[in-house]
Write a structure and sequence with these properties.
Elements (H helix, E strand, L loop, with lengths): L3 E6 L2 E8 L2 E5 H8 L3 H10 L1 H4 L2 E5 L3 E10 H8 L9 H25 L16 H17 L3 H12 L11 H17 L3 H12 L7 H40 L2
């Protein structure tokens, strides 16, 4: 049975489960929490499992006899925004928008604040990065993708608009900047170009795996971590080598 976290969300409890050291979300709870029909949404998820990275796992607290469909938390943002609000029933429209605006952020924040380290860390190899900073870069990537421009272009525009350097500002300013970026992102999604929407639609129909800008950013971030780790280990080896040479030299010439 995977590790679980119960996450309070507007009067109900959502669930996070750990699978291969990564957070996953049981989708039936999300879908029914919005008031949508699970059977139809499950059919859509099942049609393109590679795109959404769906994993089937047993969670006794939800269903003792059947496996549960779980989505990687990193994919939840994209899935929520694939829902067309105008096509859902009017009485649940506000709830769907609420989930689109808040659900992924609440789950992500809960995971980063309550999950334990995946493996022991030491002072030599520890690599840390503020979660707000990572979220900022994720929003920048998504906004650049929707506008069809580079991340640097979006960054420069924000620097001028907010009269600050968004990537090197004080940590206390990041939540405010992230909130502003998220608002821009929601507005941009509403007016996304037909070309991008058509491309995503065609990819989904063909059942091809769509790698989002968020995933690309996460891969780059992981690569940066590995490079920093290699550099630190290399420096340690060089320092040990010099120390060994000094010790050997002192013994030879005593």
């Amino acid at each position: 049975m995977p590790n679980q976290m119960s996450v309070p969300f507007h009067g109900t409890n959502l669930l996070l489960v750990e699978h291969q050291n990564q957070p996953y979300v049981p989708m039936k709870m999300i879908v029914e929490g919005m008031g949508l029909d699970w059977a139809s949404q499950f059919k859509k998820l099942k049609a393109t499992p590679e795109r959404w990275g769906v994993v089937m796992t047993t969670i006794p607290s939800i269903d003792e006899n059947n496996e549960v469909s779980c989505l990687p938390l990193r994919k939840l943002f994209g899935w929520l925004n694939s829902l067309q609000v105008k096509r859902v029933r009017e009485e649940i429209r506000e709830k769907v928008i609420q989930y689109q605006n808040e659900c992924d952020d609440v789950l992500y924040q809960y995971w980063t604040e309550h999950s334990l380290p995946l493996q022991p860390q030491t002072e030599v190899i520890q690599v840390t990065k503020p979660s707000h900073q990572l979220q900022l870069q994720t929003y920048l990537s998504q906004l650049a993708y929707l506008r069809g421009v580079s991340i640097q272009t979006v960054e420069q525009e924000l620097n001028q608009k907010l009269n600050t350097s968004v990537l090197s500002c004080d940590e206390t300013q990041l939540p405010i900047i992230n909130a502003h970026l998220k608002l821009l992102l929601r507005e941009e999604e509403k007016s996304a170009s037909p070309r991008i929407r058509a491309l995503n639609s065609e990819t989904a129909e063909q059942g091809m795996k769509l790698i989002s800008e968020t995933e690309i950013h996460m891969m780059r971030y992981q690569l940066e971590q590995q490079q920093q780790l290699v550099e630190k280990l290399s420096n340690s080896v060089i320092a040990m080598s010099k120390k060994t040479q000094e010790l050997l030299g002192s013994k030879l010439f005593v």
